[in-house]
Amino acid sequence: MASTSRASRASTSRGANNTQLSQSQSSQPAQVTQIDDKVRLIMKYILDHSAAKIPMKEKDLVPLVGTRSELQCRLPLVAKLLAKRYGIRLHQLQDATKMYICMAEAPMASIHEMTPEQRPQLTLLYIVLMYIFLRQMRVEDTKLYAMLALLGIRVDEEHAYFGSNLRKLIEDTFVKQHYVKRERSQPDSAFEEAKTYILWGLRAKQEFTYEQVVGFASKILKQHPTDFSELLEIAKELDE
Asked: pTM of whole model > 0.85?
C-alpha cells in the first residue's frame, strides 16, 4: 500500500514538473521569423561594427531592441540573414558567452580583396600566422619578433610599409580580433621565467586555410611552392 502511495506521489510530482516546464517554455518568446524594425537595427549595428572585427557585447545589442529576450528571439534570423546576404557567420564566443564575433563564411581568395589601408595589416598577419604554422602552431613571442627582425620588421620601430605600433597590432589588435591567441606559461620553479606563446586564434582558423598560409610562405621566402611539399601535405591534412 505504501509503495502504491509513493508511486502516486511520484506521478503527481512528475505531472507538476511537466506542467511547470510547459509553462516556462510557453512564457519564452518564440523565435522571430519575419524581418521587423528590431531585426533591421541589429543587422545595421553588426554590419557597422563587423569591419573592426572586435567582439560585440550582448549588453550593447540589448538597448537596440529593449530586452535580452527580444534580442535572443531575433538573433537566429539575424544570423541566417548575415550568412545568406553577406557571407558572414555570427559566432558566440565560448569563453565569453555574452559576446559575438563576425567571421567570413569563405576564406579570402586574394590580398587584393582588401583596401590599400588594410593590406599592410593583412600581410603582417599572414607572416605571423605563417611562422606560427612553421613552428608547429605555437611559438614564443620573442622568437616571433626575432624572425620579424630578420625580415627588417622591428615591432618597436616604425616601418615604411607596415607603419608604427606593430607590437600593439600583434599583441592587442590581432588578439582582440581573435586572429591570434596569447598564452603565458607557468614556470616550474622560481628560477624559471614565464614565457608568452602565440598561437592561431579562432578567427584565423575559420577564415584562412593552412594551405593558403604555406603558399604565402613560399612567396615571402621567394621559393617555389614545391619546396614546401611536405608542409603542403600537412596543411591539406589539417584543412580536411
From this structure: no
